[in-house]
């Protein structure tokens, strides 16, 4: 195809600039003309804020099978075993490739330093810059991106609509009304943690990709599963700072307002239990004592160790008057990672031809009902790589023919700005954390459902600014979450229904939603015992 005829035509358009989008662009640029579209700066994403690391079975006593079992145990048997197998087997290769890109991994006597996080049976977390792995990874990929060819980067460009012609994705429209056409489109926009009033996420995590896909009739799945990180430090009224699970991996203890350790009462792995267990335990203690936090205690480690192992966390908490070597830090659970998302296959493909999804916006089933720590950056890298391979193999046909005028006519004048419903949006965030958070029940979920219905005018408003579109996207995402959470009448992983507190084997299935087909069950997920048979 000749690009000089139209500068806005590409082989691959990637929406989002986190690890999945950047890695996919680097890989695809070897055979395709690529455009990255991101609504802010390149580093306005959850990747840049990630602390923990990348899980990979490279230790002497470790194996990919152990990594698989840990992943599926943490996912409560709800994982797609094929996806988990792909994830675990590709992890060592990903670490090797990042090392070749000069990723500054922390080393120990010539070998990768390996940390441990919750629900891992072995030390297998590789990390960089102490507790700033995401920042180091993003910077590494950005350098590679800028030295490559065939990649256009459009910052401060907000994609607001997925364009479809003849049942195929053909591009996106941006807030300005500009249309960008692509033989393939990849959504790598991250999660939607900002739909909750208490969240560790970047301000950019507003469910943009979910909403774009949902409005285009693309299937989403498992939207009821939102993971809450057990330990976040409140830095201001509406902002929370992640306190890495790696602290507990290095011996930090959780203590209640009386200064007593409590996690051994909840799980035999104590502080290293799966995240959903620790989050519920912390909330139980907060309710029991009528307090808004518990405390994390790592005073058994000296100042020198903490500065070296957790430089970012140590420095930031010191700014707020907490010396981790001497005092306990108040922490609370916060919305952290969107497990559900756009339904994808094992190659990042979606239910719409020509559309791919990777990273937190996607759901291949690899995380099941509760993500294993430090599998998120890994998943983004592994499946972005696979998506690009699939594109290279299958998307060599010319750009789909379309009538440009059809889309230009839809570019109506946008009149409503974010001030018109900002108060409504803030009310939604509070309601979501209260009723669609760590504990849920039908009564609370219906409160939020009624609120969404009473304010559905936001779905039809003619919007004109970025914040207004972000609010609309979060409303759409919240609706999908609430509908799925109401439908799943059991407790599994990070979806905990107080009115249905037990797992139910009848619910060993995924909930698929789309504007075309409504809400339904998909085929049953592969169960843990299937893995055990394979493992032997």
3D architecture notes:
Helices cover 35% and strands 18% of the residues. It is α+β, with helices and mostly antiparallel strands and 536 residues long. Among the domains are: 231-334, Flavocytochrome C3, Chain A, domain 1 (Alpha-Beta Complex), CATH 3.90.700; 411-507, Methane Monooxygenase Hydroxylase, Chain G, domain 1. Strand 12 and strand 13 (240-242) form a beta hairpin. The protein is globular. Mean pLDDT is 90; it is low at 1-5 and 525-536.
The secondary structure category is alpha+beta
Largest sheet features = 7 strands, mixed
User: Considering the protein shown, what is the CATH homologous superfamily of the domain at 231-334?
Assistant: Succinate dehydrogenase/fumarate reductase flavoprotein, catalytic domain
Q: What's the CATH first level of the domain at 231-334?
A: Alpha Beta
CA-based shape: globular
Radius of gyration: 22 Å
Count the beta strands.
21
Mean pLDDT: 90
Query: What is the CATH-assigned architecture of the domain at 231-334?
Result: Alpha-Beta Complex
End-to-end gap: 51 Å
Helix amount: 25-40%
Strand content: 15-25%
The CATH topology of the domain at 231-334 is given as: Flavocytochrome C3, Chain A, domain 1
Query: Which segments are poorly predicted (pLDDT under 50) over 5 or more consecutive residues?
Result: 1-5, 525-536
By DSSP (H or I, 4+ residues per run), the number of helices equals: 17
Could you give the topology of this structure?
Elements: E1 9-15, H1 19-28, E2 34-37, H2 46-49, E3 54-55, H3 64-74, H4 81-100, E4 107-108, E5 111-112, E6 125-126, H5 133-147, E7 151-154, E8 159-165, E9 168-174, E10 179-187, H6 208-215, E11 220-221, E12 226-234, E13 240-242, H7 246-249, E14 253-255, H8 275-289, E15 294-297, H9 303-309, H10 311-319, E16 329-338, E17 341-343, E18 355-357, E19 362-363, H11 376-394, H12 404-409, H13 422-435, H14 442-454, H15 457-460, H16 466-487, E20 509-514, E21 518-524, H17 528-535
Parallel strand pairs: 1-2, 1-10, 2-7, 10-18, 17-19
Antiparallel strand pairs: 3-6, 4-5, 8-9, 9-10, 11-17, 11-20, 12-13, 12-16, 14-15, 15-16, 20-21
Helix pairs in contact: 1-5, 1-11, 3-4, 3-17, 4-11, 6-16, 9-10, 13-14, 13-16, 14-16
């Amino acid at each position: 195809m000749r690009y000089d005829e139209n500068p806005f035509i590409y082989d691959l358009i990637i929406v989002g600039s986190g690890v999945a989008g950047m890695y996919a662009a680097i890989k695809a640029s070897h055979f395709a003309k690529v455009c990255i579209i991101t609504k802010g700066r390149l580093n306005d994403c959850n990747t840049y804020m990630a602390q923990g690391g990348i899980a990979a079975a490279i230790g002497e006593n470790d194996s990919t099978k152990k990594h698989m079992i840990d992943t599926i145990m943490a996912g409560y048997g709800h994982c797609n075993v094929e996806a988990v197998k792909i994830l675990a087997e590709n992890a060592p290769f990903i670490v090797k490739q990042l090392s070749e890109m000069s990723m500054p991994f922390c080393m120990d006597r010539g070998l990768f330093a390996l940390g441990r996080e919750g629900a891992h049976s072995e030390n297998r977390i590789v990390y960089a810059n102490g507790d700033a792995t995401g920042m180091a990874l993003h910077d590494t990929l950005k350098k590679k991106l800028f030295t490559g060819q065939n990649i256009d980067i459009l910052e401060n460009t907000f994609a607001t609509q997925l364009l479809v012609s003849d049942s195929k994705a053909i591009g996106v429209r941006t807030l300005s009304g500009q249309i960008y056409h692509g033989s393939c489109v990849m959504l790598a926009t991250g999660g939607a943690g900002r739909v909750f009033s208490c969240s560790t996420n970047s301000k950019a995590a507003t469910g943009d990709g979910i909403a774009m896909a949902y409005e285009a009739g693309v299937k989403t799945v498992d939207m009821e599963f939102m993971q809450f990180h057990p330990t976040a430090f409140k830095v201001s009224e509406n902002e929370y700072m992640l306190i890495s699970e790696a602290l507990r991996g290095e011996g930090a203890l959780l203590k209640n307002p009386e200064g007593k350790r409590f996690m051994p009462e909840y799980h035999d792995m104590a502080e290293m239990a799966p995240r959903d267990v620790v989050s519920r335990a912390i909330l139980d203690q907060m309710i029991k004592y009528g307090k808004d936090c518990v405390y994390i205690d790592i005073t058994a480690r000296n100042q020198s160790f903490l500065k070296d192992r957790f430089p970012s966390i140590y420095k930031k908490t010191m700014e707020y008057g907490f010396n981790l070597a001497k005092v306990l830090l108040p922490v609370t659970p916060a919305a952290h990672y969107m497990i559900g998302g756009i339904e994808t296959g094992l190659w990042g493909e979606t239910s719409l031809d020509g559309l791919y999804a990777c990273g937190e916006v996607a759901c291949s089933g690899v995380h099941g009902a509760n993500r294993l720590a430090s599998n998120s950056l890994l998943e983004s890298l592994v499946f972005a790589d696979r998506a690009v391979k699939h594109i290279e193999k299958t998307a060599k046909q010319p750009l789909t023919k379309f009538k440009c005028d059809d889309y230009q006519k839809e570019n109506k004048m946008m009149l409503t700005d974010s001030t018109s419903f900002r108060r409504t949006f803030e009310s939604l965030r509070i309601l979501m954390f209260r009723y669609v958070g760590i504990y849920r029940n039908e009564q609370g979920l219906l409160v939020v459902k009624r609120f969404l219905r009473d304010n559905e005018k936001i779905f039809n408003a003619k919007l004109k600014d970025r914040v207004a579109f972000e609010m609309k996207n979060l409303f759409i995402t919240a609706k999908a979450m609430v509908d799925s959470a109401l439908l799943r009448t059991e407790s599994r992983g990070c979806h905990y229904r107080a009115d249905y507190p037990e797992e139910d084997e009848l619910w060993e299935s995924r909930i698929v939603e789309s504007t075309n087909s409504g809400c339904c069950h998909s085929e049953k997920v592969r169960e843990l015992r299937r893995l055990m048979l394979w493992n032997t």
